[in-house]
Specification:
Elements (H helix, E strand, L loop, with lengths): L6 H16 L5 H28 L1 H4 L6 H33 L1 H21 L3 H4 L2 H8 L3 H4 L3
């Protein structure tokens, strides 16, 4: 059961295929460099957040817990990033295919950077109490954006 195409549909499909074939090839070095830079920025953001989760967050966001539990709680906010990466990969992979990878890369980098800034601007638990725990976790939407 093949569907017959009109002459204009066949010619437009052929035109699209010829445009794809005529596109200049992207060098593998350029693709590898772009992948490296994107991954380096992403892992640098993870490094900053992981360091802060280990050294700063237990004292600032979880002072009501003991030392061990405060560290575990702050590492749990860090672990949320790794568990939600597949969701981000599916979400931003879809938009990368639709809107273009460069646009999606810029969007994810902005989300990661602004979210890291937002975590830095969250007041400590001494100032606003236990609400800081949910704010510290929820102000980090970068966990979904880093799934590229």
């Amino acid at each position: 059961m093949t569907k017959s195409l009109s002459k204009t549909q066949r010619s437009s499909d052929a035109h699209v295929r010829s445009d794809i074939q005529d596109a200049p090839p992207t060098s593998m070095k350029r693709v590898a460099l772009a992948s490296y830079v994107g991954s380096a920025i992403e892992y640098y953001d993870f490094y900053i957040y992981g360091t802060a989760a280990a050294l700063v967050f237990p004292k600032v966001f979880f002072p009501h817990l003991g030392t061990s539990m405060a560290t575990v709680a702050s590492m749990a906010t860090f672990a949320a990033a790794f568990f939600s990466r597949p969701v981000g990969a599916a979400f931003f992979g879809h938009f990368g295919d639709r809107l273009g990878r460069k646009t999606t890369l810029i969007a994810t980098l902005l989300i990661m950077g602004l979210s890291t800034l937002a975590v830095g601007l969250v007041p400590g638990a001494v100032t606003i109490g236990l609400a800081v725990t949910s704010m510290a976790t929820c102000s980090k939407p970068r966990v979904v954006s880093s799934g590229d």
